Amino acid sequence: MDIRNRRCLVVGGGGVGTRKVKTLLDCGARVTIISSQASRQLQKLTDNERVRIKKRSYQPGDLEGMFLVIGATDDEKLNRQISQDAEGRGLLCNIVDRPEICNFILPSIVQRGDLTISISTAGRSPAMAKKLRQDLEKQYGEEYADFLRLMGAIRQKLLRQAHEPEAHKSLFEQLINNGLLELIRENRIEEINSLLQAVLGDGYRYEALMDV
Asked: What is the pLDDT of residues 70-96, one digit of tens each?
């Protein structure tokens, strides 16, 4: 879902609400927070032009003009009201840890540049989703971001040279099968360049491609 510059509402300013706000901001949203109390981390975000904090109780009118709403309070009655109000307006609504009153859910996410891995237990066990996310964060390091950036630059260059997209498949498979990812992880630049030349020919050097 592309929520860049979309107006989003988070009701609840505790630890969970803070995490949801950060996720929305990372995705480029414009976020309004409704909470009589806001965490110290949220208060530090007030200088961000994409964040507004209203220190008061939730009102149904707060949904006006919103694209989606997240309920992150510890008040079950309030959470259900938020869900009902959002449903009545046809808005996307997520109530934290209450999948039965959500019309969309937010998976745990591992982000490495253009690589996104999402984990969902359909709300059955947030603790397990968290554990899996932590395991995947260890398994998939920042080299995956560099790898995909490089592969994207190679693909764009091939397309500019009028290569047929279907012909790219075998080239990319050769790069992957010959350990390109491992070479990037270990920062073995000369070996990367040798592999690029062997598979793609002259004119493909890691440093130049990563500057694109």
From this structure: 999 999 999 999 999 999 999 999 998
> Which option is the CATH number for 107-140: 3.30.160.110, 3.20.20.70, 3.90.960.10, 3.90.950.20?
3.30.160.110
How far CA 154 is from CA of 80, 127, 158, 188, in Å, comes to: 50, 39, 6, 18
* Tokens linked to 139: 């398994």
Distance CA 123, CA 138 (A): 23
Q: What is the Cα–Cα distance from 33 to 38, expressed in whole angstroms? A: 9
pTM for this model (two decimals):
0.74
pLDDT tens readout for residues 8-22: 999 999 989 999 999
Strand partners, 115: 112
